[in-house]
């Protein structure tokens, strides 16, 4: 059983994916971490983010087990990941790894931007999790504030709009509702409400 979860930045898809994975007893892969990992390696080496061949070489050699989540979160890394993720060669280099994860016996839950459309087009259940940009910015702003990051709400909203724009207009694997995808708008839902709605949609897809 493969569950594909896609959606824009700060839509809550990561939290939902984790809870669904626990609920259905499957392993979970947050594919955003792979793109963040590529950007992290380039930044650590002092190399530019705008060289597709360089970024693809890093992606091809990425060791999923070595990703240190604590160094991959944060605004700058999301922005950097969005830049390298627009290169087709980077996406291609990460495809095998994602498909191997999805292909484990018993299946898996993967979340990202192109899971239902490109990585696992034959997934058993596909959710497209979204919320209004203002609501997503408010959630991200609260989360940053709780971690002591004083970024103002307007700056968070501008970030989110810029990432939405870049992720939806790139030519390779843009953010789209995949064929067969069920849209879950969480604007008016709390985390438990969103989880209950997601389980209902997944159960209805199986
Ligand atoms: O989901 P997260 O915010 O961690 O993703 C960071 C960036 O990585 C996104 O803005 C997007 O550009 C890219 N990404 C992607 N495809 C995925 C997952 C993430 O292009 N499957």
From TrEMBL:
Tell me which domain of life the UniProt entry assigns to the organism this sequence originates from. Bacteria
Please give the CDD domains that the UniProt record associates with this protein: CMPK
Q: Does the keyword field hold Nucleotide-binding?
A: yes
Please give the GO cellular component terms listed in this UniProt entry: cytoplasm
Alphabetized, the UniProt keywords read: ATP-binding, Cytoplasm, Kinase, Nucleotide-binding, Transferase
Q: Which SUPFAM superfamilies match?
A: P-loop containing nucleoside triphosphate hydrolases (SSF52540)
MF (Gene Ontology):
ATP binding; CMP kinase activity; dCMP kinase activity
Q: What is its main location?
A: cytoplasm
- Family named by the database record: Belongs to the cytidylate kinase family. Type 1 subfamily.
Q: What is this protein called?
A: Cytidylate kinase
State the species of origin: Salinarimonas soli
Gene giving rise to this polypeptide:
cmk
